[in-house]
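Protocol step 6 of 9: fold each sequence in the batch and record its structure tokens directly after the sequence line. For illustration, a two-sequence batch is reproduced in full.

Sequence one:
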Amino acid sequence: MDDITALILDDHASFRRAFARLDDAKDPQQMRSIWEPLALHLEIHAEAEERILYPHLIRRGGEDAEDESLDAIRDHNKIRDAIAESRQHEVGTDRWWTAVWSARRENTEHLAEEEDEGLPDFRRHAGDELRAGLGADWLAFYAEHPSGKGLTFRDKDPERYVAKYSQ
């Protein structure tokens, strides 16, 4: 079975490739065809992490797990906000690009922090069986929510989120 951390890293690689494709887009139709699936994937991914990974990191991670989780939820909120902002503007306009670049910057920072801090912390403190079980949960989550079906993408209060799973 797949380890949840490997599945998350696969998504991260997909995000990087999609942003690179967006760099090469030549017209609004190409931009839209790349951005809309990417934005949706970013939102689904954040929701999956918040439901599956971070509750376990908070409970089983090292001494920095709560701070890592607070940072992650804040990052997810910033990414969601930038995606929402992009949807307020015509694709390809300066204001649209500003919002897309904000999402990209926030995502790039988030991926680095997660890959350098949160995921290694989780790998050190979570056993193979848990990681495989959460990997199965991750795959099931994506299967149960094709194209984000049934999900609402809303910002979360980081402190409340961490407090909820710290107990």
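Sequence two, same batch, same settings:
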Amino acid sequence: MDAQAKPPQADSSLTHLLAALAPHDDKALVLAYETGAEVQPGYHVTEVKAGSFVTLDCGGNPDAWQETILQVEDIPARDSAGPMRVGKFRAILAQVDRKVRLAGDARVTVEVSRPGEPMKVYDVAAVEVTGKRAVMRLGERPAICKPRHRARQQAASACCPPAADSSSCCR
């Protein structure tokens, strides 16, 4: 058994994800989310989106980034083939990249839904390889106030936390 676990990666990039999966093309790709639940083995990657975002947060700070958004329909398998192989998943992304350029440093977002249900948005939290499976662990993505989040990060890395500044957010 070749158990390997990659630590959770906040805002994991497309390059990081593909590199973690590359040596495992023959393994079943399993998507796990919501307290250990797994996407059904017949899941279907319905769309791959290359998104560029330019935003203004609630503190008036501009931001820009790119995302690769994988839309996944969570459906049962029609036969006993099981989940798609990592190689097929990587081939899908390579085909998309030939037609719609995918940025390697783009944040990977995974949208998952069963038919008739609303989509839920996830980040790639980790890739774990055990036996015949490569498990892409999906972590919930909460909404955040970026100015408050940045202030907390700066306070955590500073020896003396800055004074509370309520003007950094629109509250």
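Proceed to step 7 once all outputs are recorded. Observation for sequence two: The chain has three helices and eight strands.
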